[in-house]
Automatic annotation (TrEMBL):
GO molecular function per UniProt: GTP binding; GTPase activity; ribosomal small subunit binding; small ribosomal subunit rRNA binding
Family: Belongs to the TRAFAC class TrmE-Era-EngA-EngB-Septin-like GTPase superfamily. Era GTPase family.
Region (G4): 120-123
Quaternary data: Monomer.
Record region (G1): 11-18
Top-level taxonomic group: Bacteria
Gene3D superfamilies: 3.30.300.20, P-loop containing nucleotide triphosphate hydrolases
UniProt organism field: Xylocopilactobacillus apis
Annotated protein name in UniProt: GTPase Era
Membrane topology: Peripheral membrane protein
Keyword Nucleotide-binding included in the entry's annotation: yes
UniProt binding sites for GTP: 11-18, 58-62, 120-123
Region described as G3: 58-61
Length: 297
């Protein structure tokens, strides 16, 4: 009896959603950094065994939107609720629960999809605190089961895998058994450039920037030529991305190129440009060209 289904991974920014999916898949499919709100798209990660196929939907962190981009990011999360057979609500229990968590809880309590509460980062708290947190969610959230674990260390991870299978319907594989994601290669190339920006810059730069891969179809001297544009909103941000005598853009290119070569399994010549695009996060045409398109309901 083969089982297959969709499992939405939702929660606040930096709760560990992407780390959790990557642990299932055995590879880093989503960008994982210390920066909050790293995931911007809804990314499907496909986990297939002999008896089941789980299609995880890694979603952006749920928060009150501040611009058109964050509205569409939240839209990705809410659409995943409707597509899912199960919702994994991931909570970072190493930090204090606040109004932002209640905002997510209110959204989830409106759903009819079963919810498994994933209490993440148990390796960072005292056991006494776990009981207190569990009592809080028993009072505020409608869920089927709570599973404390650590997505980083893998502690109690098998219990979650076993629980997920219980909610999958019987059915044939939804994707080819060799597929790892529904996203094309060009998407992951852009994400690796964005990851380098996230890790090498600070303050407002990471969340004011976006990456568009223009072309990666050409070869020269045995290398794949990849051309990409980094968009920022202000001239001051452009100067930071470029750096003194081009030092920052060079470092971004070096770091991204190494990871892209690992992804593609071939040598790469990465060419980066920086362009000012004022208010791109509130401009539909820019959001569409960057792949942040509104979900169809």
């Amino acid at each position: 009896m083969f089982k297959s289904g969709f499992v939405a991974i939702v929660g606040r920014p930096n709760a560990g959603k992407s780390t959790l999916m990557d642990r299932f898949l055995g590879s880093e499919l989503s960008i994982v950094t210390s920066q909050p709100q790293t995931t911007r798209n809804s990314i499907k990660g496909i986990y297939t065994t002999e008896n089941e196929q789980v299609v995880f939907i890694d979603t952006p962190g749920i928060h009150k939107p501040k611009d058109l981009l964050s509205e569409q990011m939240d839209d990705y999360s809410y659409q995943s609720f409707k597509d899912a057979d199960l919702i994994l609500y991931v909570v970072d229990i190493s930090v204090e629960l606040g109004k932002g968590e209640q905002y997510v809880i209110d959204k989830l309590n409106d759903q009819k999809v079963p919810i498994v509460l994933v209490l993440n980062k148990i390796d960072l708290i005292h056991p006494d605190k776990l009981l207190e947190i569990t009592d809080y969610f028993k009072e505020h959230l409608k869920y089927e089961k709570a599973i404390p674990l650590s997505a980083v260390t893998g502690q109690n991870f098998p219990a979650l895998k076993e629980e997920i299978v219980n909610y999958l319907p019987e059915g044939m594989p939804l994707f080819d058994v060799d597929d790892l994601s529904d996203k094309p290669t060009i998407f992951f190339v852009a994400e690796l450039v964005r990851k380098a920006i996230l890790e090498l810059t600070s303050e407002e730069i990471p969340h004011s920037s976006a990456v568009e891969v223009l072309d990666m179809s050409q070869f020269e001297n045995g290398k794949r030529i990849i051309e990409a544009t980094i968009y920022v909103e202000r001239d001051s941000q452009k100067k930071i991305i470029i750096g003194s005598k081009g030092s920052m853009i060079k470092n971004i290119g070096i770091q991204a190129r190494k990871q892209i070569e690992e992804l593609l399994g071939e040598r790469v010549n990465l060419k980066l440009w920086v362009k000012k695009a004022p208010k791109w996060r509130n401009t539909v045409s820019y959001l569409n060209s960057l792949g942040y398109k509104k979900e169809k309901h």
